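R.M. (postdoc): so does anyone remember the format we settled on? I'll just put the structure tokens first.
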């Protein structure tokens, strides 16, 4: 994984550390510019900003899928797991990795549908997969992208 690259919505951006300019990340073309003292400080600043944006984006996704699937979570939490995109607990709470917002929209939708399907089926049996594919027929493509890019997105600064 290249530490000078950050993903957002499935697109890789080259990090440009600036001596002048904004301390908030600015996406321009294929770069994200930020004023910082080092690449490590730049990545931390970018991560903090993107983490805030991710909470809004993922909350909107969960809200969008609630009426479609006819099931709502009892709670929504955001984490930073090293190996998971999301999870669902037996009390109906959804946990989503904020880094999911770094993936393409189809992958974000897939994980939200996947975890919401667990609100009806707390297993990965045939009924669960039928529920997922009912709402998200292209799940295998999304799963393939997530698997191929997980090592780039789930890494730490």
């Amino acid at each position: 994984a290249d530490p000078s690259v950050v993903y957002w919505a499935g697109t890789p951006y080259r990090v440009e550390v600036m001596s002048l300019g904004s301390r908030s990340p600015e996406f321009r073309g294929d770069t994200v510019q930020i004023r910082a003292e080092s690449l490590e400080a730049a990545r931390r600043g970018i991560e903090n900003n993107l983490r805030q944006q991710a909470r809004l984006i993922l909350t909107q996704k969960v809200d969008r899928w609630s009426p479609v699937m006819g099931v709502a979570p009892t709670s929504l939490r955001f984490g930073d797991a090293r190996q998971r995109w999301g999870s669902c607990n037996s009390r109906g709470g959804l946990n989503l990795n904020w880094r999911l917002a770094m993936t393409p929209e189809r992958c974000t939708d897939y994980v939200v549908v996947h975890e919401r399907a667990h609100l009806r089926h707390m297993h990965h049996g045939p009924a669960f997969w039928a529920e997922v594919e009912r709402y998200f027929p292209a799940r295998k493509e999304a799963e393939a992208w997530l698997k191929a890019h997980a090592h780039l997105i789930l890494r730490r600064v």
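R.M.: ...and that's the designed sequence above, right after the tokens. Also worth knowing: The chain has four helices and seven strands. Residues 56 and 101 are 10 Å apart (CA to CA).
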